[in-house]
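Render this sequence as a predicted structure.
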Amino acid sequence: MAEMKREKPGVQCERALLMGVILPRSNVDPSDPLGELRSLTKTAGALVVDEMTAKRRAAHPGLYVGSGKARQIADRCDQNEIDTVIFDNDLSPAQIRDLEEIVGVKVLDRSELILDIFAAHARTSESRLQVELAQLEYTYPRLRHMWTHLERIAGGATTAAAAVGGIGTRGPGEKQIEIDRRIVNKRVSWLKRKIAEIDRRKVRQVRSRRNVFCVCLVGYTNAGKSTLMNLLTGSDVYVADELFATLATKTRRWNLCDGDDALLSDTVGFVRDLPHHLVASFRATLEEAIHADMLIHVADASHPMVEKQITAVDKVLAEINCHAERRLLVLNKIDRIVDPTVRTVLASKHPQAQFISATTAEGVESLTQVVAERAGGKAMNVTLRANCRNGRLMQYIAQHAEISRQTYSDATAQIEARMPAGKIEILRRFGSDVEVVTAVP
């Protein structure tokens, strides 16, 4: 049995071997099955030295791969001075333990790698709490196999971005040892209470924007959402050619056509097989998408796996109850498409999609017009009963409606006007202070 290797002094980044087990229903890119894992590993700060794949009808119950393949991995680790083996699959705690005994180096699965990247990219206190909860929930069932105790983290946050121990050690295990399951449970309970407070505050914050049309950017990680947001709003949201560059939601004002405004929010990107506990922990961050009037689903049209990426995002959106009728597919990065037939095929599959380039601004004017039409909608003749004491309500009606007749009875105004359908929908957010008596074309 090989001994566990220790980190070598002076090494700047870990040397990683990527391992992908391709099962019958796997949704990896057949032309480059480890492409996304390679990008994730690079984002985590490791150097990809070697790659291996194996096709199986089912995962091996003990090692995920067969014992022969495990020994091959061990040999490649010795030959290439590998520090970490990263699987493009989710492994059980026992499988990780048994593999580490055979290969002699640290073994990570896909979920742990993604969680580590989130820990490294968490900038706000909100995202740090969410990452820590997701990591602890991932770690808890693995305590028996990974360590006897964790560090005493009950008194402070543990998702520091810069960890010495390499990828897979940032977050709740970065200093390691000396805390038991009881204290982990206590910490998880505390984190859930804090995140529940954030959820409630976020819901109140989102609902307070009831007189503004809210649009949310969603999509696969690195699809160009932040670049598009900067272009549309003139803001300076952080942009990088790496996965999960955005974790915390950012909201900016977007000036549409004819002087109308919308609030545009950027959200965390998705990947295929995104860990469920991570989606649950980031529910507060995704609150913008849940309550938005419109979702702009940004996809990288130049990516060879764009269809599967679109499907992966749709799956997560369905999990958080974002209905399809509120979405607009935007196929970005058309400036990178070399073969014109690619665009033709995409257009036939997605006839309602907008084709744009957030880098060159091609197609962005058309996108803005579509959103403006969705925000306004067809003009309707309406009869309203409104509470005159609600100043914000009366101001909204005066700003967005062409009033033809207005009468008063005590604190109620009876208003006949012409108003865009989209504005009428926003009007309904004022609750019992307003009643839409009639609305006809």
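Summary. The chain has four domains: 15-108, 121-202, 209-375, 377-440. The mean pLDDT is 81.
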